[in-house]
Amino acid sequence: MTKPSLDPKALEQYLRFSYPVDGSVLMGQKGTPAPEVRFSVTPGRSKDDYLQELLQILERMLAEERQCSDAAFLSSGVDSSLIAFGIRARKTFSVAYEEAEFNESDLAIQAARELGSEHHVAKIGPAEYLGTVDEALASRPAPTGDASYVALFIAAQEAAQHTDVVCSGEGPDELFCGYPCYNRYFQSPSEDFWLATNTIMDVGEVPDLPRYGGDGFLKMNAFDLSIWMHNNILPNVVAAARGAGINIRTPYVRQDLWDFALSLPTGLKANETMGKLLFREAAQRYVGRTIAFREKRGFPVPVRKWMRLESYKTRICDTLTNALARDVLASVDVEGVLAAYYCENDESVWKQVWEMFALIRWLDTVGECKQ
Predict the structure, then answer these.
(1) Cα–Cα distance measured from residue 174 to residue 339, given in angstroms and rounded to the nearest whole number
(2) In terms of Cα–Cα distance, which of 282, 284, 217 is closest to 41?
C-alpha cells in the first residue's frame, strides 16, 4: 500500500500513550483540542455538603436517562452498576473470558439477577478477539493501542442484537480518580508522576499541562480528564457503538458533574487504598455497599496471554516486519521489542508490542482512505 501521510509528532504521541493526544495521526486531519481543566475547591464545605450535592446530581442524571434508555453495559464495578440499577435497566450486557483472572462475568450476572434484567453475555476467546481486530480498529477514526477496545466493540455488537440504544459508564474513574495509579501516587508523589504512569514508549514531546502549583495528583487528574478521557475513553465507546450500529449514551459526561468533580477536594477523591471515595459513598444508595466499594478491576482483556499463542505470534510478527511497519516504525527497535517479549519473556513490553501491532493494522485497513 502507499505510505499514509503521517504527522510525525502525533505518531510519537501515539507511541508514548497508545493513542494520539489530539485525536488524529494523519497529516491534514483536524485535531480535537482538549477541554481546559480548572480545579476550584470551595473552602469551608463539609463532606456531607458535597455528598448531598452529588446525590442531587446523580438523581437528576438518572431521571433523565430513564426517559432515554432501558439498556446498559454492566460489569462488576460501581460505575456501570449505578447506571444499570439507577435507570432500572431491563436489558444488560457484559463480556466473559475463560481466563478466571480476567473474567468479571459471574459478578455481572449476579448483579443482573439482583436487578432483574435480561442479561446477555458476549463470550470472547482468543479466536473471536483476533478475528475481530481489523473490523474493530477500522471503526476508529484514529488508531488506539488500548487492547480493551476490541472487547468493547464485541460487547457493542452483542448489544446491537437486542437494543438500539445502550448506556455506558465512562467518566467516574477520571472525574473522581478511580484508577489504581492514584493510590500509588501517595507512595511516591512527584509533580510528573502522571507521565511515568501513562508512558508506553519514551519518545517524543509530552503534552504541555499547567503545573497546578506543583501538585502531582492534580496534574495527573487533569491529564486523565483533558487528554485520556477526551481522546481515548470517549472516542472508544462512541466508535464501538457506531461500528455496531447502535446509539450510545454516556450519562456521567455532563457539565454539572464535571463542575462538581473539579470542586471536590483531593481527600474526597482518593487515598492510599481506594479511589472514588465520595462517589462510592453516594453510589451505595443505589447499588448497596458491596458493589459500591468493590475493588476496581477496570476492563481487563487476556490479550497479553493470547499474544503468546502461535496464531497471535505469527500475525503480530508478520505485521510488524512488513514494509509498512518498517517505514512507519523506523525510529523504533521493533525487532528488539519482539525479541524481549517472545524470546526473553519480558512481560513489561506487551503493551509496546500490541500498540505497534494495532497501529499498523489500523493503517493497513483504513489509512489509505483517510488521506
Answers:
(1) 35
(2) 217
Answer whether 91's CB lies under 8 Å from 117's CB: yes
Of 289, 292, 282, which is closest to residue 261 (Cα–Cα)?
Answer: 282
pTM for this predicted structure = 0.94
pLDDT (tens digit per residue) in 86-102: 999 999 999 999 887 77
Please give the grid coordinates belonging to residue 224: 486523565
Q: Which CATH architecture has domain 47-292?
A: 3-Layer(aba) Sandwich (3.40)
Bridge partners, residue 316, by sequence: none
Cβ within 8 Å of residue 316, ≥6 positions away: 307, 338, 353, 357
Q: List the domain boundaries for the chain.
A: 47-292, 307-370
Q: Side chain identity at 282, as an amino acid letter?
A: A
List all residues 6 or more positions away from 298 whose beta carbon is below 8 Å from its beta carbon: 148, 179
The tens digit of pLDDT for each residue in 201-231 reads 999 888 889 999 999 999 999 999 999 999 9
Strand partners of residue 94: 121
260-272: pLDDT as tens digits: 999 999 999 999 9
